[in-house]
## 1
Amino acid sequence: MTALYVSTVLLWLAVGVLALLVLALARQVGVLHERVAPLGALMLDQGPKVGERAPLFEVRDLFGRPARLGGLRERPLLLLFVSSTCPVCKKILPIALRLAREENLDLALIGDEREQDLRWLAQGLAGVQVLNAPEVGQAYKVGKIPYAVLIDPEGVIRAKGLVNNREHLESLMEAYRLGMASIQDYLRKEG
Amino acid sequence: MDPVFHWTLRLGLALVLGTSGLSKLRDLEGFRRSVANYRILPPSLEGGAALLVPLLELGGAVLILSPAYPLGVTLFLLLLVLFSGAILWGLQQGGGFSCGCLGGVEEPLSPWLLLRNAVLAVLAALAYLGPEPRSLGLLDALSVLMGGLFFLLAYLTASLFLANWGRMGEVRR
């Protein structure tokens, strides 16, 4: 009877330690993912793929002017999905504006919230289209913001991804120039 | 059912429910955002619901450990049905956001969550079977304590694996 008692206690202790170890391992894997994943703009594998034709939307912007997303156009178009409730979006806005000016892009801010909130976010931004268009975000399956999609003048998606900082945004331009979907794609092709 | 099994189930369920509730209360803003992502409730009710759900969970955890445990188990099952319905709805909307199951853990919506909820529901339903009378010793107390703890750790590990799995897809491609 004593042997049974002792072995049960021992086994329970072992199970407890093992359970803690597995939990710690799972946490470590999570931390590793956080460190490894965003190499350049993180592209969530959802929605229309890079190289596909961008879905065409003809909508009206916040000021009632018609806006056309996708299809043939004169300059590349950068779609930036934002929200007034996301602090990173506010940080990325001036960076996106500068990038659009330097790289000669059309910039469209796309939100999915109350119009006055979006208007507040976009105040003082000249020459930018601001649209409150949930359908666009749904078509691109945007799950995290700020999210950017770069569409070339032929209306083909050339790069997209989660853009949390300047490097992420610039990596989209880099991918466009190199003709690669993402830096991960580039690394794979270069071996 | 043997009282050790019965109490292990109850302790485990209470720990899982309590941890879910506490973690949500600690990250209330994150949970409110998760509720908003589901787009089930009108925005004016999101704040209230984000507070109500963790409080219900904590209340359920206490009830499951109290003599009125069948009530707690029923509350647990109702919450599971509610959550599973919300997850199904979210998946139909295209998913792509954190389920908000545990505060501070980004678990993307997936059908696996439904399987997990089903397993939890079966285990919870087993707790309805009352304990058979039998004299309990120290070893039984150890079994219940460690078994309950194991229940919680297994749940947390499964959650972390589901969270990591979502990120795996982004890295693997």
## 2
Amino acid sequence: MILYDQLIGPFAEFAFMRRALIGTFALALGAGPVGVFLMLRRMSLVGDAMAHAILPGAAIGFLLSGLSLFAMTAGGLIAGFVIALGAGVVARATELKEDASLAAFFLISLAVGVTIVSLKGNNVDLLHFLFGSVLALDDPTLLLIAGITTVSLATVAVIYRPLVLECVDPGFLRSVSRAGGPAHIAFLALVVMNLVGGFHALGTLLAVGMMMLPAVIARFWARDITAMILIAVVSGVISGYAGLLLSFHTGAPAGPAIILVAGALYAVSVLFGPVGGVLRQLFPGRHLEA
Amino acid sequence: MKRLALAALAILFAAMPAAAQEKLKVVATFSILADFARNVGGDRVAVSALVGANGDAHVYQPTPGDAKTLADAKVVLLNGLGFEGWINRLVKASGTKAAMATATKGVKPRKAEDDHGHGHDADPHAWQSVANAKLYVANIRDALTAADPAGKDAYAANAAAYLAKLDALEAEVKAAVAAIPADRRKIITTHDAFGYFGAAYGVSFIAPQGVSTEAEVSAKDVARIITQIRKQKIPAVFLENVTDKRLLERIGAEGGAKIGGTLYSDALTDEKGPAPTYIDMMRHNVKQLSAALTS
């Protein structure tokens, strides 16, 4: 009975807790696979850069029509796509590598965003949405997040083969198919979409956490991509559930609590993970014989 | 005596046309103080506000332009009680020689109701009680007089006229609250800025967040508030112009309370809004309260 009160009661009693739970589950489902591919392609920090790149678009949307879900989403998506494509074009047309041109683009974008916000003078509402409001998910926001997750999962299913091949052997992919380019662009679009969905719930800064931390956790528990994706989604779901409970019982702010739980899972994985974890590396023999 | 003073004033003005044109530069930290200063100073002063209409002074980021405004000022008006956490550094940075005047001098500070164990010790939103607003006006009058002794009589006359308006406003507020049934005088609002209003006029304000907009809200707080709405049968939930509206809409929907209009607490609106001056703001708030609570 006490266990029920502690673990399930909050969700049974309060609709806002159920909404937050559904929202974080959807985010975990959508962002988990994307995060795994980002990590395998050594683009872990690209998510962070893209999250900043979204800011000016969301800010312009906010200035044009206030805290409107549609305007901020559209603005964020447009800004994200422009930065992703712009960085890609510069990388292919010049000597600059993609990570360097992305760094340049996202910093410019971030500066534009902060300038727009400051010029308007009223920066308060924007500050709130930068940190998200996982406890205030209304129907349109939930539908948006769920829709993004659906599209994201379907797209990952469609471009799964070229994506996996590009992680493992990009040279081979280029020699047998021309799907690599379009798949790469579709993949970047998925990153942007999931981040835009995430910032409504967790804010631009913590949305990246829901994408990358589960993926990094999964790296310590599995060697093949399918298992990694599953573990990433499950650890995202666990973080969402435990983080909300943490916030409910201790009074910690909800968004950071979710990411902190994911951080704790990461620490455990670093120590005890069977694939390259610290303990495993210290005592390799015992595990191999068993 | 009065006639003599007026005559002296007339001569003074006639004798110094150049001095009369040179307006006293006054900088107020936020829009409500600026409104008081304009009313007391009349056309002898040029007032500017650092945090303008609809801005939130709690989380304000000063700009280099603000430092320049401060450097040019003769008088700086601030609320005090920890409201403008950023002002000391800004004053130092600007190197201004302006006289600093704290408008809450003489106000009896309320303890902030803060469950988070951080934030300010005193609740800074003292202007939400009209009685305190009268102290603000007196302090501003004294500050302007000290900086511009020649305008003493003008400031005294303006302040007296404005104080009379505030008296009328206070009577209006009390009458409106008296018309609300006593057991319905409780509301929920996002930002705990109405402590002084509640204490002065007998309305309970319950906030889902702590006293400052700096703290991020937790699931525990939200659950507590919803439980409270359900248990105490709180009739109305109000939005405010400075914090997250989506959160409040959720709380209202889940607890079964009515969503009231917007209350203005920390900032005035611009000319087109419903609360361009302090008196308009108080009238607007009281009207919204009675509309939601009497029905």
